[in-house]
Specification:
single chain, 152 residues, mainly alpha, 6 helices, globular, Spot_14, nucleus, Lipogen_MT_Stabilize_sf, cytoplasm
């Protein structure tokens, strides 16, 4: 049985996952020397605002460099491609003394379809933001090393 394709195919979760994975793969292929991303701020505007923000903000912003986002995006891509369960299995193998995670199931009689729609909508939004971050990081890396016009 074949299903007709919806008119808004670009909003499909599978398509969003593919766009995200493609953006991270492009980022991974473009960034030849990831260590160059260390200590490079994500936004130049954010760097300028750091001087005027509250005194403790530099501690939070110190961890928000391009390298940390690069590592985070690659880790999320692996979770999307291989599944979260496989990542948890890998963590358990490394740390055998860790207790089993407690699963919290909703106890109410909430409509499962509504719950699924809620989570899919949230997942789609997160994947869109992560795709944008991967594309921005790739473009920013190209600017930093002076090849901003290549591959466009």
């Amino acid at each position: 049985m074949q299903m007709s394709e919806p008119l808004s195919q670009k909003n499909a979760l599978f398509t969003a996952m593919n766009r995200f994975i493609g953006a991270v793969n492009n980022m991974d292929q473009t960034v030849m020397v990831p260590s160059l991303l260390r200590d490079v701020p994500l936004d130049q505007e954010k760097e300028e605002q750091k001087l005027t923000n509250d005194p403790g903000s530099y501690l939070r912003d110190a961890e928000a460099d391009m390298y940390s986002y690069y590592s985070q995006l690659k880790s999320i891509r692996n979770n999307v491609e291989w599944g979260v369960m496989r990542a948890e299995e890998q963590r358990r193998k490394r740390d055998t003394t860790a207790p089993e995670p407690v699963r919290t199931e909703p106890e109410s009689d909430m409509d499962l379809e509504q719950l699924l729609q809620y989570h899919l909508k949230g997942l789609h939004g997160v994947l869109s933001k992560l795709t944008s971050q991967a594309n921005n990081l790739t473009n920013r890396y190209k600017q930093e090393i002076g090849i901003s016009g290549w591959g466009q």
